[in-house]
Amino acid sequence: MAAALDGIVVLDLSRILAGPWCGQVLADLGATVIKVERPGSGDDTRSWGPPFLKDENGEDTTEAAYYLAANRGKQSLTLNIASPEGAAIARELAAKADIVIENYKLGGLVKYGLDYDSLKADNPALIYCSITGFGQTGPYAPRAGYDFVIQGLCGFMSITGERDDLPGGGPQKAGVAITDLTTGLYSTIAILAALNHRNNTGEGQYIDMALADSAVALMANMNMNYLTSGVPPKRFGNAHPNLLPYQVFETSDDPIIITIGNDGQFRRWCDLAGAPELADDERFVTNPQRIRNRDALVALVIDLMKKQPRAWWVENLEKQGVPYGVVNNFEQVFDDPQVQARGMKIEMDHPTAGTVPLVRSPVNLQGSPPVYNRPPPTLGQHTDSVLKDILGKSDDEIAALKETGAV
Length: 407
Hints:
Layout: E1 9-12, H1 18-28, E2 32-37, E3 52-54, E4 60-64, H2 65-68, E5 74-78, H3 84-96, E6 99-102, H4 116-120, E7 127-132, H5 147-153, H6 156-159, H7 178-201, E8 205-210, H8 211-218, H9 220-229, E9 246-250, E10 255-259, H10 263-272, H11 287-292, H12 294-305, H13 310-320, E11 324-325, H14 330-335, H15 337-341, E12 345-350, E13 354-359, H16 383-389, H17 395-404
Parallel strand pairs: 1-2, 1-6, 2-5, 6-7, 7-8
Antiparallel strand pairs: 3-4, 9-10, 10-11, 12-13
Helix pairs in contact: 1-7, 5-8, 7-8
């Protein structure tokens, strides 16, 4: 089967996470993604370890697990764009590309002639996606944007973490770089929309993506909780501000997640817990009433949940159709029968490690499924082939470029 983005060429000038995540999604969908890296060091995340991928002798390679997470499917070209020769090569590639992804600081590529206005003169159909912390406009535009900083700015840390009145309360970031990842996904959506626009009009365009914008948008119902009430939402720990019971509860042995989303589910839980009267209690009969009487209900649920072990709850909640979940560590995640049935873990051949374990794309297209034909590349692995196959450079020309330090 042909992949969805067969024939699309992406010049990926980005590094760290947001841009590379976007590039990896496009590569999974079949695009040819050329990852431009600094000679000698490459993407910063190559060294963001341990842990590092082990080679076939059990020794650390130079590829950190962090780097491996975001660079599957790409070709690595080492290129010094600060040199005239290197910048010229990048411009040649951009002239042949459909898409450019970059995450340099505001105006950082102008001096190399790699900004959108410079490149579109030779390639009017080019789709050029800039990813920055704060976008191309506004008072913060010149600032560097880091995921942690953006998590604070967008309100996420004001609603994440234990309640302020409980031990351990206070601001808390997410365990993964959610604003980078979200921006990478929004950038992919924007690029695909721009591709469709180009198919209809023949015109390329500039895309201005910002971590801050994506993060504010990601706050979803919390934004609306504030905008409709004028009251800033607060931290609820593992509880939910709008649904109840909806949090982690201790059983007689291990914790379990209860996620009751409607009054019928609440009634079934009450019957199962041996407290059917709670479903008819005027304080708890509807979800709004349960929210208004949160503390009273949570105290009762805590006591009732502790009467049985988790295995009992899992078996009976499943039978009664009451939503629940368990809290897995990552060993348990990849041992989970559902995760295994969906084939989320994949193995790919790797030039130094033999094989590398990876997590597949969650996108499931029946007619043009994702492709997994390239593992995350070693630094500069495809420099010669990109220069030969895409730009038609001769061996002598490549040798000359290497001599100058351009590649």
